[in-house]
């Protein structure tokens, strides 16, 4: 992380130590001097170029291998798919790039810290400064939320104060060593940042395009934070604010045409990230799931079986390519805007789960019914349990259907206790001529230590004070053909 800080301070940005950040450093580097400069730079770094970690999907029960594709081609993501202790080496023995979230997210943390330190001195109106501060606090909270859920154990009120989280960096200074704050400390920071973001957005009084977050976006993310903490009352409070303020409108898929993510969809609150592409290329691409002749990994049969009778999402969220279902949300045809989004449907799901946890079954039922009736052909063919454990199970499965392939499933599996499950991933060994030579079956058990990502080895090498996460070697059950 030290290298990330130095790179950003000296490369993209900036030199926060400069007393006059108006001056031009050289012909290729200009220090931001106006609010608009900060807004445009933040927009590029945090909302255009930034990308959420889709690769967690390879570890869930929503993805399975294509048994026909060669082992060599599937090996690119085998370390993730089989939950290996070392994910930085792929199945071919080559260096893997699947563990880049640490560097990407701390880069954003540093950038937002820089904005917070310097926006007050920028040339511009106070309300514009407030909006930029709101964006900076929102992005820092979003980054830490991803970091702590990827690289630490799930929040548990009984242990959060003692469990190792991730390093907490609130400035732009470079330190030789640093340690990991607790999970509780990081969650407290996320909560504080989101509340500050809400205040700044509301103080600004400004409304910008969907590429910019706003108070409702921050409230939706805060409701997710409270959901993960099992703070049901606060989750209900913030989701209710989102639903009431936006009118709670959802896009009825029976009336849907064209892309799902666009400016006419009333439930979209905010978009970000480089739009997905069919094959993907470069650092901003979604996972490259194609081999030379076949899809390497696609939608699991287990996932397809969860769709409801007449569920319009089955065709909207999954597309068949080269004979196998793949996530449509990873394709450019799904969006006219960003590759990722915050939308009102999550607010209904978050509130439904919180209501059900409080045994407010009637309220939970109405929320999940509201979502389902906008996603199926004929509501009369759908039976939603009205109470108890089965209603909770339906809501949990509805999260899986609605939010599939958006980075939610891994964390939902990690945090659940009521519906914890063992995941089995089969890996078929296929030689270069297409012959199947055997199979390997790998298992991930509930509360498995491999739910927690390893700290990148480069970070461990740089910082002797960093403590690594404990993970297990995963050995397969083998069957030869």
Automatic annotation (TrEMBL):
Residues 26-227 form the SusD-like N-terminal domain. The keyword Membrane applies. It holds the Pfam family SusD_RagB. Belongs to the SusD family. Residues 1-17 form the signal peptide. It comes from Butyricimonas hominis. Residues 342-469 form the RagB/SusD domain. Its main location: membrane. This is RagB/SusD family nutrient uptake outer membrane protein. Keywords: Cell outer membrane, Membrane, Signal. The keyword ATP-binding does not apply. PROSITE patterns: PROKAR_LIPOPROTEIN (PS51257). SUPFAM superfamilies: TPR-like. It is found in: Cell outer membrane.
């Amino acid at each position: 992380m030290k290298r990330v800080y130095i790179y950003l301070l000296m490369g993209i940005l900036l030199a926060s130590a400069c007393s006059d950040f108006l001056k031009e450093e050289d012909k290729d580097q200009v220090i931001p001097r106006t609010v608009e400069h900060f807004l445009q730079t933040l927009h590029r770094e945090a909302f255009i170029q930034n990308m959420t970690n889709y690769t967690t999907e390879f570890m869930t029960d929503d993805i399975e291998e294509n048994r026909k594709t060669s082992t060599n081609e599937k090996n690119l993501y085998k370390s993730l798919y089989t939950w290996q202790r070392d994910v930085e080496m792929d199945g071919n023995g080559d260096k893997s790039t699947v563990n880049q979230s640490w560097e990407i997210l701390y880069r954003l943390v540093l950038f937002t810290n820089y904005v917070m330190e310097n926006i007050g001195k920028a040339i511009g109106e106070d309300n514009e400064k407030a909006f930029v501060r709101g964006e900076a606090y929102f992005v820092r909270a979003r980054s830490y939320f991803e970091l702590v859920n990827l690289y630490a154990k799930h929040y548990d009120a009984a242990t959060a104060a003692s469990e190792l989280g991730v390093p907490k960096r609130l400035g732009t200074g470079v330190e030789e060593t640093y340690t990991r704050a607790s999970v509780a400390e990081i969650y407290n920071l996320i909560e504080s940042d989101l509340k500050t973001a809400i205040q700044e957005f509301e103080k600004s009084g400004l409304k910008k395009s969907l590429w910019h977050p706003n108070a409702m976006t921050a409230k939706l993310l805060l409701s997710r934070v409270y959901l993960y903490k099992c703070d049901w009352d606060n989750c209900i409070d913030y989701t209710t604010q989102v639903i009431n303020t936006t009118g709670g409108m959802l896009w009825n898929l029976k009336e849907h045409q064209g892309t799902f993510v666009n400016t006419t969809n009333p439930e979209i609150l905010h978009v970000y990230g480089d739009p997905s592409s069919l094959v993907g290329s470069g650092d901003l691409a979604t996972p490259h799931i194609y081999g030379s002749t076949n899809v390497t990994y696609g939608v699991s049969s287990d996932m397809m079986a969860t769709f409801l009778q007449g569920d319009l999402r089955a065709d909207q969220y999954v597309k068949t390519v080269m004979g196998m279902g793949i996530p449509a949300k990873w394709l450019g045809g799904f969006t006219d805007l960003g590759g990722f989004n915050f939308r009102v449907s999550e607010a209904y799901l978050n509130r439904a789960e919180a209501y059900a946890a409080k045994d407010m079954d009637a309220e939970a039922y109405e929320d999940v019914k509201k979502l389902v009736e906008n996603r199926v052909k004929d509501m009369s063919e759908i039976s939603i349990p009205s109470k108890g454990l089965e209603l909770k199970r339906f809501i949990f499965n509805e999260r899986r259907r609605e939010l599939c392939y958006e980075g939610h499933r891994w964390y939902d599996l990690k945090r659940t206790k009521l519906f914890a499950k063992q995941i089995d991933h089969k890996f078929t060994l296929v030689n270069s001529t297409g012959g199947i030579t055997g199979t390997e079956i790998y298992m991930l058990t509930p509360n498995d230590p491999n739910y927690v990502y390893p700290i990148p080895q480069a970070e461990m090498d740089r910082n002797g004070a960093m403590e690594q996460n404990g993970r297990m070697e995963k050995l397969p059950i083998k069957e030869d053909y």
